[in-house]
Amino acid sequence: MSNGGAGPSRLYRLRALPTIGAMPEPDSHSAPRKIIHIDMDAFFASVEQRDNPELRGRPVAVGGSAARGVVAAASYEARAFGVRSAMPSVTAKRRCPELLFVKPRFEVYRAVSQQIHAIFARYTPLIEPLSLDEAYLDVSADLRGVGSATRIAQLIRAQIREETGLTASAGVSYNKFIAKIASDQNKPDGICVVRPEQGAAFVAGLPARRFYGVGPKTAEKMAGLGIHTGADLRECELAFLVEHFGKSAQYLYHASRGVDHRAVKPDRTRKSIGAERTYGEDLQAEDALRAALDGIVDILWARVEKQASRGRTVTLKLKYNDFRQITRARSLDAPVTSREQLAAIGQQLLGDQLPVERGVRLLGLAVSSLDSGDEVATPAAAIAEPAPRQGRFEF
Question: Model-level pTM?
Fold first, then answer.
C-alpha cells in the first residue's frame, strides 16, 4: 500500500460506524459450505464454432456486423486481439481484420443451457442461475456420495463436454464470492479450488478491480487512495470504506477477509437488466442519438437473452453535459419479446425528448418488471435444502 507508507487504516483509525451492522461470523462448529461456480467458456461463440466447423480456430464475434452494431460475445481467438462483448463492431473489426461476424441464435443457446442445467441437477437441487451460461451450485450435501466437491466439479465439466461438446470452467470454494472469482482463474477449460484455509491469502493477492462491483472508475479511485489489492482493502477500517465507498463498504470489508455468508438461492430473481454508455463527445444531433441508442439496444437484448428473462417495463436514461439526468419509462401489459420491439419502444421514448437542448454524455436503456425464463429455473419441488450426507466430505 502506498500513501507515504501509511495505509488507509493507519490514517483513519476510527471505530466502526454503529449504523453498519457487522456480518455475523459462521458457526465455528459447522462444516463450511461447498460451493461450485460453473462458467461456460465463451458460450455463445463456442456454440457457433461447435455447430459450424468452418468457424473453429478462427476469431468469431456473435452479434453485430462489420458495418454496425455491437459484439454480443467473442471467441477466445477474437479476444486475443482485444475484441470484447459490448464493443462496437467497427472497433472490433479494426482490432481484428479477420474477424467473422455471426448472427446470434438465442433459441439454440437456451436449449444448450437446458442440457447444462440438467447436468447440474444430477448433483444438487440448490442451483442459482446467473445467466444461460453460469450458475452457483451448493453441493454441501453430496447427495451422490462422490466424497469431494472438487470431484463433483470435475464430473460436471466432463459431462458437459461429453453431452454438449463444449467446455466449462469451475471455481470450488467455501463461499460464492471466492468460487466465482476462482472460476475465472484458469479459463478456458480449467478448474480452481480455494479451500477455507486458503481463502484469506487468495483474496489478499487479488487486484482490487477483481472485486465485484469495482469498475474502472472505482478502481481508479481506489488507486488514488493507495488501494491496489485485496490485502490493501483488508487494511482499511470499515469507517474509512464507508466514507469513500458508501453502500459498498460492508461488502468490501468482508470480502477482503474472504467472508461471504450468502446462501445459494434457487429462487433468485433479478429486478432489472440494463445497458448504458458514456460518450467521449456529447451527442446532440437526432441521427447520432438514434444510432447510439440502436447500439445500446443490441447490447441490452443480448443481456436479456443471456439472462433468459423478459421484462414489461422499458426505461430510457439520458444524462446531459450539465450532468442533469432524466429517465422516461413505458410499461406494457405483456413482456417485450423481441429486439425489434425493444428498439421501437426505446426509439419512441427517445423521440419524445427530441430535439435535445443540450449535448447528451450518457445514454442508457433498461428492462424491468422481469419474468424469469423457465429455461434455467429450478423446479419448485427441488428447492428444499437436502439433508447432509453422513460421513467425510472433502473439498
Answer: 0.78
